[in-house]
């Protein structure tokens, strides 16, 4: 039994029904309400959070205080714990206002660490919509294609320790679940990690929509706390030999077809936080629907020093 599983008047933590690697944190409605009341009383807007970085950490402390019991510390422990490294949490129906979703996700993110600048939007977070049609240059917003398994932050130099994804809006959507795989559940991890190219530094170049110009070389596998971690995305890797290309294709195929991949069910107003170094994520294809409308929010960041 995970040391994090518990129940008190402020929260309840249990294993996610789809994966013992993920913990579901259910806050009491009172905690969420008290937190939002404090934000409303101080009239803290999303724009204010965008313009004033310290306010993101200040509101994180408000949520920490409402839950008590070293809540923020526990979230950091969960994300750093190799056995889990991930959790879900939400607003428990207390608000349907998407601005308040942004505020809540900001508080959670800044208990875990500090959000990185998102070059795609020029903010510390990104909201992006998936609809029936799309003319972008990556699979991020293409609804009817499988978005292959990867980690985030491959083509930037800064650390991307963790990732937060929140479901903001969902209408006429069947499919499109987040596909997730914990590295220790991947049956062929050792085969790829221990191969001669396992620690090769692959070249990554971002497409124009990411607004990132640099070329980055990153090790595919690297050790942290003596356990293998991974940095990989198929779309932006530029292998320099045919051997490298075939290796990456085989790796992607192996991850994609692993029987431990879960397709996470997540309600609107809920979010998932994952350790980006040993969890991989992707997205299942949606079923065709001309009225499809799904919006996600993401924040990626690094841990506090
Ligand atoms: Fe991603």
Structure description:
This protein is an alpha+beta fold. 26% of the residues lie in helices and 29% in strands. The protein has 7 helices and 17 strands. The protein has helices at 29-41, 46-51, 53-67, 71-80, 98-112, 189-193, 242-256, and strands at residues 6-7, 11-15, 22-27, 86-90, 113-115, 126-131, 147-150, 162-171, 178-182, 201-205, 215-219, 221-224, 227-230, 262-264, 270-275, 279-283, 293-303. The strands form 4 sheets. Strands 1, 2, 3, 4, 5, 6, 8, 15 and 17 form a 9-stranded mixed sheet that branches. Strands 7-16-9-14 form a 4-stranded antiparallel sheet, covered by helices on one side. Strands 10-11 form a two-stranded antiparallel sheet. The radius of gyration is 19 Å and the shape is globular. The two termini are 29 Å apart. Bound molecules: fe (ii) ion (FE2). Fe (ii) ion is lined by residues 150, 152, 281. Residues 150, 152, 281 line the site of fe (ii) ion.
Q: Considering DSSP H and I runs of 4 or more, what fraction of the residues is helical?
A: 25-40%
* Number of E-type strands: 17
The biggest sheet, with number of strands, parallel, antiparallel or mixed sense and barrel status, is: 9 strands, mixed
Poorly predicted segments? none
User: Counting H and I runs of at least 4 residues, what is the number of helices?
Assistant: 7
Sum up the overall morphology in one term. globular
What is the radius of gyration? 19 Å
Q: Approximately what portion of the residues adopt beta-strand conformation?
A: 25-35%
Mean pLDDT, to the nearest integer, reads: 95
């Amino acid at each position: 039994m995970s040391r994090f599983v518990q129940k008190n008047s402020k929260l309840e933590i249990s294993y996610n029904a789809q994966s013992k690697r993920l913990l579901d944190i259910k806050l009491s409605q009172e905690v969420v309400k008290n937190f939002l009341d404090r934000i409303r009383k101080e009239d803290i807007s999303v724009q204010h959070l965008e313009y004033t970085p310290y306010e993101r950490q200040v509101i994180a402390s408000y949520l920490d205080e409402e839950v008590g019991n070293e809540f923020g510390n526990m979230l950091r422990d969960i994300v750093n714990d190799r056995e889990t490294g991930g959790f879900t949490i939400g607003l428990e129906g207390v608000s349907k206002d998407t601005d308040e979703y942004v505020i809540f996700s900001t508080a959670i993110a800044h208990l875990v660490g500090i959000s990185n600048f998102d070059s795609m939007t020029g903010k510390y977070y990104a909201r992006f919509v998936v609809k029936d049609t799309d003319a972008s240059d990556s699979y991020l917003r293409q609804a009817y294609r499988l978005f292959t398994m990867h980690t985030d932050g491959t083509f930037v130099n800064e650390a991307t320790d963790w990732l937060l994804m929140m479901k903001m809006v969902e209408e006429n959507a069947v499919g499109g679940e987040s596909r997730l795989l914990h590295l220790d559940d991947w049956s062929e991890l050792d085969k790829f990690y221990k191969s001669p190219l396992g620690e090769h530094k692959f070249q990554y170049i971002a497409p124009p929509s990411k607004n990132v110009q640099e070329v980055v070389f990153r090790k595919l596998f690297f050790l942290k706390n003596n356990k293998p971690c991974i940095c990989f995305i198929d779309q932006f890797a530029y292998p320099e030999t045919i051997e490298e290309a075939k290796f990456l294709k085989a790796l992607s195929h192996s991850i994609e077809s692993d029987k431990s991949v879960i397709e996470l069910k997540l309600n609107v107003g809920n979010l998932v936080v994952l350790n980006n170094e040993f969890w991989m994520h992707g997205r299942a294809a949606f079923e065709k629907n001309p009225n499809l409308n799904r919006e996600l929010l993401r924040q990626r960041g690094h841990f506090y020093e």
